[in-house]
Amino acid sequence: MIRLRRSQAVAGLTTGRITAFSDGVFSIAITLLVLNLRVPTVLPSESPGNVLDQLRTQWPNLLSYILSFVIIGIYWIAHHNMFHYIKRSNRAFLWINILLLMCVAFIPFPAGLLGQFSFIEQPLLARVAEIIYASNLILTNLMLSLLCSLPGFDRPLVSKSAGKPDRLFSFSFVLHLPKPHRSPPDAYIAYQRGA
User: Fold this and answer.
1) HSE-up of residue 20 (Cα within 13 Å, Cβ side)
2) Residue 86: what are its φ and ψ, rounded to 5°?
3) Domain extents for the chain?
4) What's the rounded Cα separation, in Å, for the pair 117 and 3?
5) What is the enclosing helix (H) or strand (E) of 30?
6) Which residue among 26, 50, 91, 109 is least packed, with the fewest CB closer than 10 Å?
């Protein structure tokens, strides 16, 4: 076990390594999204129409990729902006950040499920994929909200020159999900528009 000097324990730990590690996780998660897209396999003797048919079948995966890429981008921007205010960290802050990164790193899996099962004839499988996707976004929002609210309880984490940190995310996204006609992407778009 590493023991901190008294001055370090009081002042808190710096955030350079936290942001570097977090940026790495965000970049890997956003890159893994593309693995849900498949290159069409076509024999040289087949017509170009077969390639177009195979590409047309991938539009749900492409839509899921674009949506998830934007969502991870939004999380990264919020995380990046938050560290404008945060100059020190403590153990609770580190663990909440780790849980946030775990949720972000998991996004490619439900994004793959969403692309595979959302637009098929079996509504039950589509609903299960949408629930898993939405649950992951809810957990990610919860972790980001906890991370953003922690400096309010532990003021030494916040830079004195930065002022009071804003609340970057709210839980109102959750309120948009119970409407039965909305899928998680629709709910997220409605949340962003304030509908």
Assistant:
1) 4
2) -85, 120
3) 13-193
4) 50
5) helix 16-32
6) 91
151 near 86, Cβ under 8 Å?
Answer: yes
Question: CA–CA separation, 110 vs 169, rounded Å?
Answer: 21
pLDDT in tens, the chain (195 residues): 555 554 444 445 778 889 999 999 999 999 999 998 887 777 777 777 777 777 787 888 889 999 999 999 999 999 998 888 787 888 888 999 999 999 999 999 999 999 888 877 778 888 898 899 999 999 999 999 888 877 655 555 665 555 544 443 444 444 444 454 445 555 555 544 544
Residue with tokens 């990610």: 140
Kindly state the tokens that stand for 15. Answer: 């955030």
> Measuring CA to CA, how many Å separate 169 from each of 19, 78, 96, 142, 151?
19, 8, 15, 9, 14
Cα distance between residue 130 and residue 176, in whole Å: 13
Give Rg (Cα) of the chain: 20
